[in-house]
Design goal:
Shape: elongated
Strand content: under 5%
CATH topology of the largest domain: Receptor-associated Protein
Largest sheet: none
Number of strands: 0
CATH architecture of the largest domain: Up-down Bundle
CATH class of the largest domain: Mainly Alpha
Order of helices and strands: HHHHHHHHH
Number of domains: 2
Structural class: mainly alpha
Radius of gyration: 27 Å
Number of helices: 9
Distance between the termini: 9 Å
Length: about 230
């Protein structure tokens, strides 16, 4: 009889933990569900390779692996978010360099030399390409915008190319773009923070509620068992 309560407590905690994990995974699957077109394309690729229909459990397990499609998508999202975080610094450094009398390429190179971020490395690679004459500056900027892939960086590249083509002043333009990019990044971070409590609501409730019930009802159940015994 003395071992019954610890065994019951352990079973409740394990069940609550498993239910919480399942609930959290269900929320993630619902929020990050692929479109029907992508699902059909992947299913067709699997059937075309002669592997047949993949079980849902196996597909979900493979999607959580470090090399799975879900992991790759998360990595792309983190990379895009880091680009948006570093873009205001790029714009401000280029603007300050041009205020000091530098040309656009010199100010752009100043950022790539002084910063060691993923965005700075991408910009440095493209800068070296068009400085060596392998590609034109306009073509290099367009390819860089496609490689980074964020709307704010694409807007920056198109604005710079337009200003360079028509000889328009760029300092105030870059500062305005930096302020706008910083606001967009702050809004996205606030959106992610606002989604976190909603995603953790079900796992937290499933994990905390059984433990609280066990703490409250445990002594009462133990007392009743002693009286009945």
């Amino acid at each position: 009889m003395s071992f019954l309560l610890p065994a019951l407590s352990l079973a409740l905690l394990m069940g609550a933990f498993a239910a919480g994990l399942l609930g959290y995974e269900w929320l993630q699957a619902r929020d990050r569900a692929h479109s029907k077109g992508e699902a059909k394309r992947r299913l067709g690729a699997v059937e075309g390779a002669g592997q047949g229909r993949m079980p849902k459990g196996l597909a979900a397990f493979l999607g959580r692996l470090p090399f799975g499609p879900r992991s790759k998508r998360r990595e792309r999202e983190r990379r895009a978010l880091s680009f948006e975080r570093d873009l205001p610094a790029l714009l401000e450094v280029v603007a300050l360099g041009m205020q000091a009398g530098m040309g656009f390429e010199q100010a752009f190179a100043l950022y790539t030399e002084r910063f060691e971020t993923p965005l700075a490395r991408c910009c440095q690679e493209s800068l070296r390409v068009w400085q060596r004459g392998l590609k034109g500056r306009d073509e290099g900027m367009r390819e860089l915008a496609e490689r980074v892939g964020t709307p704010s960086f694409q807007h920056f590249c198109s604005s710079v190319l337009r200003a360079l083509r028509f000889g328009a002043p760029m300092t105030q333009l870059l500062l305005d773009l930096a302020q706008e990019a910083r606001k967009e990044y702050r809004a996205k971070r606030q959106e992610l923070v606002a989604k976190a409590p909603v995603k953790m609501l079900l796992p937290t409730g499933v994990l905390v509620l059984p433990a609280m019930l066990l703490l409250v009802m445990g002594p009462i159940v133990l007392d009743l068992m002693r009286k009945m015994g």
